[in-house]
Amino acid sequence: NAGVTQTPKFRILKIGQSMTLQCTQDMNHNYMYWYRQDPGMGLKLIYYSVGAGITDKGEVPNGYNVSRSTTEDFPLRLELAAPSQTSVYFCASSYGSREGNEQFFGPGTRLTVL
Amino acid sequence: DQQVKQNSPSLSVQEGRISILNCDYTNSMFDYFLWYKKYPAEGPTFLISISSIKDKNEDGRFTVFLNKSAKHLSLHIVPSQPGDSAVYFCAASAPNTGKLIFGQGTTLQVKP
Question: Mean pLDDT across the stretch A37-59?
Answer without folding.
Answer: 93
